[in-house]
Specification:
Distance between the termini: 35 Å
Number of domains: 2
CATH superfamily of the largest domain: Type I PLP-dependent aspartate aminotransferase-like (Major domain)
Radius of gyration: 22 Å
Number of helices: 15
Strand content: 5-15%
CATH topology of the largest domain: Aspartate Aminotransferase, domain 2
Shape: globular
Number of strands: 14
CATH architecture of the largest domain: 3-Layer(aba) Sandwich
Length: 438
């Protein structure tokens, strides 16, 4: 695969953009090498500046469930574009998208659109504190909820990639009210509530953790969170920015049949455009201005382009599409497990719906500690071997692999065949290293 133009563009970008990118993981620091600068995308494929084509398993970090440049989304955007990109005033489009989401997501009775998942989680914390009149928030190791100051404590994703437990520029006072527990450890949560329950406003959690690789919750964990928060008068916030409309049409909460008090959404509901949202019961949401005392606003919130793309996307999400996603994702999971076994290369694969986590470890990955046991060097070798064979994976061990409705049987087969080659390379290199040591 050629990378000369991408390398040149990267050097130019580094002179103007911090690190040459606008989001850290894109810089390939976790895997090494030159980030590919993407020129265009369609369906399951993306093409870089050098003309290389790749099967895309990043899917704009999960937002593109239908694949890139889906015709109905593109055509809807074209029709809206000539009418204007933003008005700073209400539109019917906001109401239409809200109706679709409220009909789909069990816990949401009223909703507020914002511009990103970070905005959604930030506002949900403010709302929870106002509702409960408490100050503390409980989160989990390895769960990432955007770059919100109080939540950048033992976050996952990019922070895990760079081994940064916190972010510089955040004061001790900002994080003093943030409590942290291990993911999937309900006993630790109960003990924390026994000590500080009357001070905890909310528990915020990714119901399926997607920012330390993919880590699945135990059913008892989510049920336990719902029970302990109710018993202590705290709110339960599900950060479904990644899982909303991805794990199932109604999100992870419908899949696991757990009803949170506040739900945060993003990614898929904007059809690939910048978007976020948070919603919950009437009695909670009515505290927001202009009805209540909790202030939150945004110039581009509910902008017509994002609303249009969201409506066009969500109306395509029929049961048959989820069935197809399940078949493709299951085929990929089974293939990866099979070739790793054939290569005698320890790999642990987690999957729910069209989301997969691939860890180079012989341990079962159930939390942040076990996720960190994955061999990052092996993932780097795997990533570049796959890239050279035309497969574009997340450039970090601690991100999630996404399958879209555009991925064909041939795409999955090619990916599994490429994984076989990549895993054999890892085994060969490991064998050679052992011989040198001997």
């Amino acid at each position: 695969m050629k990378s000369g133009k991408s390398a040149l563009l990267y050097e130019q970008a580094k002179k103007l953009l911090v690190g040459g990118v606008d989001s850290p993981v894109r810089a390939f620091k976790a895997v090494g090498g030159t980030p590919r600068f993407i020129k265009e995308a369609k369906g399951s494929k993306i093409k870089d500046a050098d003309g290389n084509s790749y099967i895309d398993y990043v899917c704009s970090w999960g937002a593109l469930i239908l694949g890139s440049a889906y015709p109905k989304v593109v055509n809807a955007l074209k029709r809206q574009l000539v009418k204007g990109t933003s008005y700073g005033a209400p539109t019917e489009l906001e109401t239409r998208l809200a109706e679709i989401i409220i009909d789909a997501v069990p816990s949401i009775e009223r909703i507020r659109f914002v511009n990103s998942g970070t905005e959604a989680t930030m506002a949900s914390l403010r709302l929870a504190r106002a509702y409960t009149k408490r100050s503390k928030i409980l989160k989990f190791e390895g769960c990432y909820h955007g770059h919100v100051d109080p939540l950048l404590v033992k976050g996952g994703s990019g922070m895990a990639t760079f081994s940064v437990p916190d972010s510089a520029g955040i004061t001790n006072a900002t994080t003093a009210d943030t409590l942290v527990c291990p993911f999937n450890d309900i006993e630790h949560v109960k003990a924390t509530f026994e000590k500080s329950g009357d001070e905890i406003a909310a528990v915020i959690v990714e119901p399926v953790a997607a920012n330390m690789g993919l880590v699945l919750p135990s059913p008892a964990f989510l049920r336990g969170l719902r029970e302990v928060t109710k018993n202590h008068g705290a709110l339960l916030i599900f950060d479904e920015v990644v899982t909303g409309f991805r794990v199932s049409y109604g999100g992870a909460q419908a899949y696991h049949q757990i009803k949170p008090d506040i739900t945060c959404l993003g990614k898929i509901i904007g059809g690939g455009l910048p978007v976020g949202a948070y919603g919950g019961a009437h009695e909670v949401m009515e505290l927001l201005a202009p009805e209540g005392p909790v202030y939150q606003a945004g110039t581009l919130a509910g902008n017509p382009l994002a609303m249009t793309a969201g409506i066009a996307t969500l109306t395509e999400l029929k049961p048959a599409l989820y069935d197809r996603l399940e078949r493709s994702s299951s085929l990929l999971e089974q293939g990866l497990v099979r070739v790793s076994r054939d290569a005698v290369c320890p790999v642990s694969v987690n999957r729910v719906g069209s989301m997969l986590g691939l860890f180079f470890t012989d341990r079962r990955v159930v939390d942040y500690a076990s996720a960190k046991s994955s061999n990052a060097a092996s993932y780097s070798v795997f990533f570049h071997s796959m890239l050279n064979q035309g497969i574009y994976l997340p450039p970090s061990q601690f991100e999630t692999i996404f399958v879209s409705a555009a991925h064909s049987h041939a795409d999955i087969t090619k990916t599994v065949d490429a994984a076989r080659v990549a895993l054999e390379r890892i085994r060969t290199e490991a064998t050679g290293l052992m011989r040198k040591v001997e």
